[in-house]
Amino acid sequence: MELRHLRYFIAVAEELHFGNAAQRLNISQPPLSAQIKELEQNLNVQLLKRTNRSVALTEAGEYLYELSVQMLARLEKETAILQEIDRGERGKIAIGFGGSVVFQILPRVLTLIKKQYPKLEIHVSQLTTKQQIQALLTGDIDLALLVPPVGDEELNTHPFYEEKFIVCLPKSHPLASSTGPIAMEDVSNEPLIISPREAGEGYFEAVRSLYIKSNTVMNIAQYSTEQQTMVSLVAAEFGISFVPESTSHIQHHNVVYKEIDVTHYKETVLTWHKHTQTPLVHGVVELLKTFKV
Amino acid sequence: MELRHLRYFIAVAEELHFGNAAQRLNISQPPLSAQIKELEQNLNVQLLKRTNRSVALTEAGEYLYELSVQMLARLEKETAILQEIDRGERGKIAIGFGGSVVFQILPRVLTLIKKQYPKLEIHVSQLTTKQQIQALLTGDIDLALLVPPVGDEELNTHPFYEEKFIVCLPKSHPLASSTGPIAMEDVSNEPLIISPREAGEGYFEAVRSLYIKSNTVMNIAQYSTEQQTMVSLVAAEFGISFVPESTSHIQHHNVVYKEIDVTHYKETVLTWHKHTQTPLVHGVVELLKTFKV
DNA sequence: TTCTTTCCATACGTAATACGTATCAACATC
DNA sequence: GATGTTGATACGTATTACGTATGGAAAGAA
Fold first, then answer.
1. Looking at CA atoms only, how far is residue A120 from chain B in angstroms?
2. Which residues of B are less than 8 Å from A7 in CB distance?
């Protein structure tokens, strides 16, 4: 059986007249009769009650008519979907991101993508840098926003955005009410709350470079992966923390954010697998390359 | 696009190898390549990522593969259903019946049909004889169990079963505790509860013939269409009623059923439209012709 | 490297089949 | 009974799906 048989049968079922149906199909009547006959033999089912003058559907014919219409309609709909997938307008994309982009950047990224790819299914998962790299390599995610370095030849990166580090102090801290940037040497001995190196070396190294640039030494008091937790720990006076500017959106009655005299940027890069061949991922990468803070 | 394209594509998608796929399809490799190419051009979608050495599915290809498998599986399943419909094993049949068959006969009829046609959808509706005839003529029901006469040339009938009339008396009635058949002349003046002539003349005439045979006269007190209601009215001492034997299954603390000295049978006939062409209805009719009480 | 093998694409002739024209047979209408 | 309508049949034609032979590119072996 071929779809042609169904198409022809639909015409006959609707016209109940071989001649008219044939005309509608732009073929002549005899081959149409032959095709319908072939369909009946193929299915081993009588679809039409024929008198020499007229045609009527049998019960099975009624059923096949409904079925055929459904099938062809579905096929047409699915063809359109296939074309959308082919053009990269439709599909699934999984994006990983670090905790630091969640507040300001991620919503704007999603909005940007949704605007150009309204039918796209976007899966997002918050992961550490290390987890993101792993997920990119296994194909669990297609795209990641993470803090470099990546250190894997299989992954491509593109600068995405950067933001300055600021310091997060408890309100009780002597410098909490000072004006102007805080000098690094004034807080060098303070107990430090920092993300563990294992979660991603980029963040850890970035903070460490603040100390190196100012010739001071780190005094790590507590590790924490989540930005939110770090702020809470500062509020609980476990120590101070250096966080990207955007984290200052986490307001807490017992913490203040201050600029520091050493300017260092936390970079975030767009990362994807080198051998990604889907046009969809490429499209989204190219779109995100245009992203401006 | 034809189903052939989908069949071929499934083979290629599963083998990821044109040669092997072609072998599975019992064709040679070049026409397979050509058909797949044609499919891609037809859909205007790239389904396969080809290197000169290997084949991989694109996202759209994955999607079409799943779709094709679904479609062909469905078509196969539906073909089997079509054949069942064609053989009259599957479908819908609507049966009308009078109130008097509901207790003993109808369950057995349904059981009989279900046994031979397990996949049949049986619709039953309780109607008066007149309504049944009307419904048969309009095609609302395919089959009816009703009390003759039918009086319509378009309808075929076949004797189905018959049962004796008995009398239903209130317990307070003088004859309620008598033994042996009740004489018609002893109840000839009693107020009578009977089904209206408009509901179906068969029932009405059958009861009337009881009076004619015994040379007595009817004294109609109350009309009621439902057997259940008739018994209730007897219980409420509105009068007596002549009912088919099977109605005695409606037990009521205030009524008794007694045989009568005039034997008259209430006939029930199987009725269907003369021009019914579906094998299913014919099959069920033939089946019901074998029904024995 | 060079040879061989693998595997998809191309070229082209062949065979199957879907289609068109002409006609028939059955039925309805006038 | 003549005419028109409608589906089926007969048969030739055209399309197209298929097979054989071959090409070209990449991977593996010598």
1. 13
2. none
Structure confidence by residue, pLDDT tens digits, B181-211: 999 999 988 999 999 888 888 889 999 999 9
The predicted model gives B39-57 an average pLDDT of: 90
Fold of B91-159+268-289: D-Maltodextrin-Binding Protein; domain 2 (3.40.190)
pLDDT at A167: 95
Distance CA A185, CA A204 (A): 19
Residue spans of the domains in chain A: they are 3-86, 91-159+268-289, 162-266
* The domains spanning B3-86 and B163-266 adopt the same CATH topology: no
Nearest in space to B211 (alpha carbons), one of B269, B165, B258: B165
Rounded Cα distance between B251 and A93, Å, is 71
CA nearest A128: which of A204, A52, A17? A204
Task: Compute the distance between CA of residue B104 and CA of residue B247 in angstroms, rounded to an integer.
Answer: 9
Q: What residues are paired with A250 via a beta bridge?
A: none
- Tell me how close the Cα of A119 comes to any Cα of chain B, in angstroms: 15
Confidence of residue B12 (pLDDT cuts 50, 70, 90): very high
Rounded to an integer, the average pLDDT of B20-38 is 95
A60·B1 Cβ contact <8 A? no
What is the CATH code of the structural domain delimited by A162-266?
3.40.190.10
User: Tokens 């779709």 label which residue?
Assistant: B67
DSSP B9: H
Which CATH architecture group holds B163-266?
3-Layer(aba) Sandwich (3.40)
Distances (CA, A) of A26 to A13, A31, B2, B238, B283: 16, 11, 18, 74, 40
A-facing residues of B in 37-76 (CB < 8 A) are 43-46, 49, 58-60, 63-64, 67, 71, 74-75
> Given this structure, which CATH class describes domain B3-86?
mainly alpha
The average pLDDT across B203-229 equals 91
Confidence tier at B22 by pLDDT (50, 70, 90):
very high
Strand C contact at CB of residue B18, distance < 7 A: yes
pLDDT value of position B274: 84
